[in-house]
Write a structure and sequence with these properties.
Rossmann fold, GMP Synthetase, Chain A, domain 3, ligase, AMP-bd_C, 3 domains, alpha/beta, globular, Class I adenylate-forming enzyme family protein, 9-stranded mixed β-sheet
């Protein structure tokens, strides 16, 4: 089975076509230049002694270097471990130690974080610093680029590991989904199929490169399209880039689509070249989807998938041809490519349910991960012997085989496409000396889909909600920090231990919604 980066070689047969544009830095690379850079960086990794199967953590903001790191590591048969640059020390330390990382790629600011935890990561041999020509003990990224070009991809099998994608665990312990070269080949094929990607397309991507949503950008590259990178979403800039580069495919998610609906008349003119918008990562309600379609006339490809399936590598999507039977813009479509979907009893996965019956969504197909890194018990729970993966999401199929999401089996919160697991946040809040008990749950938010909210029983020593927010910000990625803190006298639990999150949502979400659009602030309420 070929290495999943060999599409770069095939595309380089038309060397002058533009492959990558990074407007914020003025960078632009042809297909030949992209292959040359990937080869040089790959040889640089080999020069540091990185061997096939070794894990290398990427701790960067979305950037050219992030993308090159993925492709170069895959090309030499190593394993990429993407993380988010907003990770705090404890979050990064967990990923480095759990993956057994041999190296970490970061920037100058990230060097300070890595430096403080390096001694706690056995086997970490190299720190590679982007922009770090004076980074001391680190290897400057620029040294990799002086390596000779012409690196042939290492031959790989379908099940050879190429990535560990961490997804937060419901017990507060992140799980590393083991993704393979074969998984990625299947994902690139499926996403190209969903979008009808060709070398005439220009894709405007906004998904952070530490997120599995990077797959849409890599799939665009594989199809010979141009990938336009936007590091951070800004509505005005998004509209400007779509107009300037005549984007044909744009990344989106419910908050983006909602924001576009708030723009003044005439915005549609900037998006006239767009033939499809991607959405996923959270519920897209008819109240947003339908008016967007009526105003902009841009079909939304509403996709459903997970980190464990490389989005729609094994998943579903609704495409324009489905709109006539989409039940007023509520479905996430039908299986893509070689994917299969079924609904099973949430308490008995051996029992398949009929059309219209809600149960747990199970997926099967070529992009389903091998399992969770070094977690055999957790793997056995959801990766079944016959190939089905239990997603933890609740939904049903209609008589036409269209999938509808209705709930989540677990307590995961999805905010702007990012998954927040309450237990992980609770574990941090309970470390605060002024917190006696805490519980985290999701509340609906018109702009972000959901936001995390915390109820706290204070320890009675003058602690304020502001103190708790600040404490959480120091220890958690920004999207995990509760948007509101509610002080209460009692947290509802069954027999004093089993938390009733549903009760908390019923008791407090209305008050939060009535308080206006969510923001990174606090709310003080008592029962």
């Amino acid at each position: 089975m070929p290495n999943c980066t060999t599409f770069l070689d095939a595309n380089a047969s038309s060397p002058s076509r533009v492959a990558l544009i990074v407007p914020s830095t003025g960078e632009g690379y042809t297909r030949a230049e992209l292959l040359d850079l990937v080869s040089r960086v790959g040889r640089g990794f080999q020069g540091l002694g990185i061997t096939p199967g070794e894990r290398v953590c990427i701790y960067l903001d979305t950037s050219t270097e992030y993308l090159l790191s993925y492709l170069a590591l895959w090309r030499i048969g190593a394993v990429a471990v993407p993380t988010n640059r907003v990770y705090r020390e404890n979050e990064l330390l967990y990923a480095l130690r759990d993956a057994g990382a041999a190296a970490v790629i970061t920037d100058v600011d990230g060097m300070a974080v890595v430096g403080r935890i390096r001694e706690h990561v056995p086997g970490l041999r190299h720190i590679i610093a982007v922009g770090g020509e004076e980074a001391g003990a680190a290897t400057p990224w620029s040294e990799l680029l002086v390596s000779p070009p012409g690196l042939r991809a290492v031959n790989c099998r379908f099940d050879d590991l190429c990535q560990i994608q961490y997804t937060s665990g419901t017990t507060g312990r992140p799980k590393g989904a083991m993704l393979t070269h074969g998984n990625w080949i299947a994902a690139m094929d499926a996403e190209r199929d969903v979008l009808g990607l060709t070398d005439r397309d220009a894709y405007l991507g906004i998904y952070p490169m530490g997120h599995v949503g990077i797959s849409w950008g890599i799939s665009a590259l594989r199809a010979g399209a141009t990938y336009i990178v936007m590091e951070r979403f800004d509505l005005d800039r998004y509209i400007e880039l779509a107009r300037k580069y005549r984007a044909t495919i744009v990344a989106g998610m419910p908050p983006v689509i909602h924001s576009l609906l708030q723009t003044p008349p005439g915005t549609e003119e900037a998006l006239t070249t767009v033939r499809a918008m991607i959405s996923g990562g959270g519920p897209l309600t008819p109240a947003i989807w339908k008016p967007f379609h009526e105003r902009f006339r841009i079909p939304i490809v509403n996709a459903y998938g997970l980190s464990e399936t490389i989005v729609v590598g094994t998943g579903t999507a609704i495409r324009p041809e489905h709109y006539a039977t989409a039940d007023e813009f509520r479905s996430v479509g039908t299986p893509v490519g070689f994917s299969e979907v079924k609904i099973v009893d949430a308490n008995d996965s051996a029992r398949e349910l009929r059309a219209g019956e809600d149960g747990e969504i199970a997926l099967r197909g070529p992009a389903v991960a091998l399992g969770y890194w070094q977690m055999p018990a957790e793997t056995a729970d959801v990766f079944l012997p016959d190939g089905w993966f239990l997603t933890g999401d609740i939904g049903h199929l209609d008589e036409n085989g269209m999938l509808y999401l209705t709930d989540r089996k677990k307590d995961m919160i999805v905010m702007s496409g990012w998954k927040v697991y309450p237990t992980e946040v609770e574990d941090v809040l309970l470390q605060h000396h002024g917190v006696r008990d805490a519980a985290v749950f999701g509340c609906p938010d018109e702009h972000r889909g959901e936001v995390p909210v915390a109820v706290v029983i204070p320890a009675g020593n003058g602690v304020t909600p502001e103190d708790i927010i600040a404490f959480a910000r120091e220890r958690l990625a920004g999207y995990k920090v509760p948007r509101r803190v509610i002080f209460v006298d009692e947290i509802p639990r069954v027999n004093g231990w089993k938390l009733l999150r549903k009760r908390l949502q019923e008791d407090y979400c209305d008050a939060c919604i009535q308080g206006g659009r969510s923001y990174a602030g606090v709310q003080l309420l008592r029962q």
